[in-house]
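Lab notebook, bench 4. We co-purified these components, and the gel suggests they stay together. Before we commit to crystallization screens, I want a quick structural picture of the whole thing.
Request: model the full complex, all chains together.
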Amino acid sequence: MIDFLIASLTDGLLLGFVYGIAAMGLSLIWGVMRVINLSHGATIALGMFGIYLAFTGLGMNPYLTLPLLAAASLLLGILVYFVAVHRVIDAPYLSTLLATFAVNMIVIGIGTAIFTTSPRNVDFSLGSLSLGPITVTWARVLAALAAAVVTGLLYLFLYRTRLGKSIRAVSNNKAAAELMGIATSWVLAFSFGLGTMLAAISGGLIATFFPFTILAGGGYQVKGFVICVLGGLGNPLGALIGGLILGAMEGIIPAFMETSWVPVLEFILFVIILLVRPTGLLGSKT
Amino acid sequence: MKPWRDPGLWLSLLVTAAIGLWPAVAANKPYAREMMFTVLMSVGLASSLNIMQGYTGYVNFGHIIFFGLGGYVGFYLLSVYHAPLYVAALAGALTAALVAFLLGKAILRLRGAYFALATIGINEAARSFVKNFDPFGGPTGMTLKFHVYQAYGGANQALWITYIALVVLTLLIILVSYLVKTSKFGLGLMAIRENEDAAEVMGIVAPDAKTWAYVLSAVFPGIIGVLFFFKNGNIEPGDAFRLQQSIEVIVMVMLGGQGLVFGPLVGAAVYQRLRGYLLVSPLFKNIQLAVAGLLLLIIILFVPAGLIGWLRGRFPRLRRWLV
Amino acid sequence: MSADIILRVENVSKRFGGLQALSDVTFDLPRGQILGLIGPNGAGKTTLFNAINGIYPPEEGRVLFNGQDITGWKPYRVAKAGLARTHQIVQPLNDLTVLENVMAGACFGHENHPLGRAREIADEVLEFVGLAERRDLLAGSLNVAQKKRLELARALASHPYLLLLDEVLAGLNPAEIAEMVQVVLKIRDQGVTILIIEHVMHALMNVSDRVIVLDYGKQIAEGTPEEIANNPRVIEAYLGDPKLAEKMLRGEV
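Here is the predicted assembly.
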């Protein structure tokens, strides 16, 4: 029993890293521009299909494709920002919510027309890694590692570069950053691009070990919200920790009850945390 | 102004009635009835959501849970206890009202985007819960036995009865929407929408007003759910709690113009007809979702007041009619 | 508590994080008077209003209104007891008409009128503050001076016993200030007690029966306008320049 628990916990935690970076993207976008990005799920699905097409179509190694995917999704995010979000960035929050949802509909609609909704998977097996009682697939280990590297790079970017510092400044205090001329459209657009990039990478990594459809992103997007709220909206590092908590829950809960109850508990937890600690478990008390 | 002297109310009621009566004059009556059932259902869902979204200013991504929960409870009574349809409808309404009341007490403390996020969570939680709830058939749901329809003079007769009930219900929803908008209660809701803190300073008991608005907007989808699933003959979690459908209803409200009585009515009718057209057109059939998304994006970016809101702004003389 | 004290503030303190916004503020406001509240920016004037009407309840002390302890009441409950206020930063309900804004004030205050009666009251009040011609415009389309009047009209429409006015003169030109001062005096003459925050000194000194001075959350002086203008502590803490006080009284500032 203990062995089983440790094994499922490890599995869950590894998964948590990957969930974490998708949530980090949501959190970053919320922090910088107070937008709840409902196109996140569609971007996750695009990441999945990006890796899938590169692998099955061109025979490219999924992990080596990631930087390419990152660059493409960064550009896509910037484009989405200027087309769909920029015009309504100061309008009531419903506008950006629905604008990003419209983007989601467009992407999913076109995606469904091209790929249908039949399940796919990336058939790139690397075998498993055994350490004592724990056996995990290499795909999950590498995905968690990649997610950790991405997190590290994101932090280097946010703390060491001029643009990164601008993004943090806007996130801390938009009004002040506007007065200082930092909160330019480009900073916002780039933040949106970064958030989109994180979603796509997360999707690409999930695709290496789970089957998926073009609609699969929606479920992960909702998990992203749960994680953000766990870690505190607008706090990227909190999102990673939230991801680990959610991953651990997904690993452990099935040991005690049927797997189908996992989402019920997740969402109830989500609503309760929103109510008692809207700033997240890590955030300061309001 | 007395309600019965307001041309705006009459226009809204007449358009609803015209949609409702269409199957009576159409060539293919059952086909027209099915089509108009969908339209009326959307009108009812959009108009009831508008009480929260349009009047009170709270975006609710979980409107459809009241449709689902009401539908499930009503369906359970219909199939297990062979309850009459009106009893099932009443039970659906009460369930929705009760859930909204309890939920409202909890989550209406959240403002703005936080409330919207919580409703997404609740929608998913409700669906996952029903999937696991064995009395309601778990993931496969429930199916009505054919003999249940015998009490209504056969399936065909039952479908017409359900349809007429829906027409009456939709007219009632439009009337309620109008009465709320023009009442003191409605003025309080709109004050909350514009500035909740200022509204409280003026003496508006915002927590109570919001809770009652939420309950009122939940009752109608509760009944519509019972009618819809009775007509369908089966119910399953995927149909009853589609987040997608909640969002479609929001789109309808936006399309017509939120905060108006006539707006959601027009928005729902236009959206459903457009969707119907896209579904049968071979060119658009595969990308109907993308086209709908593009439409939504265009509305948000360029016509945020919605069709009717835009008309009101462009032609002030029409305001008397387009309430 | 004597019957003609409408508002009693007792040892009220409020802290925001490390900042002591109010410390031990105590005063009485007799019914029918105008009490002025002055102090440099950040002295805690608006915080005091917020503590009185329940936006941020005080940590210590009590607020008594009409003999009732209202400390910690929600703002709507305070409003329903007959206390109305305006905001320093105007808070119009932008997408509602001017008339609807003022009707809302009449509907939900302590008199709890139905819509029909509220409309009559709103029309009277709009006439009174000079916004009658703009009754059907959206509140969001008014200019700043008009929004200030709307803010006042909305508070008045509730027929309050006590009115808290937070800088209703700020941003107005001299002619508008003179008009608004007349409006404030008329309100007092109708029997409404007023607690007023103001930076436009001569106007405040002219309308107030008594004045309280706050500095860094502390109450440093209380008295008639003349006493305040001649109080060395006030001059030092707030006015800086003694000559300014004289000018102020003559209405030159």
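Chain A has one domain: 2-276. Worth comparing against the SEC data before the next meeting. The first helix of chain A runs from residue 2 to 33.
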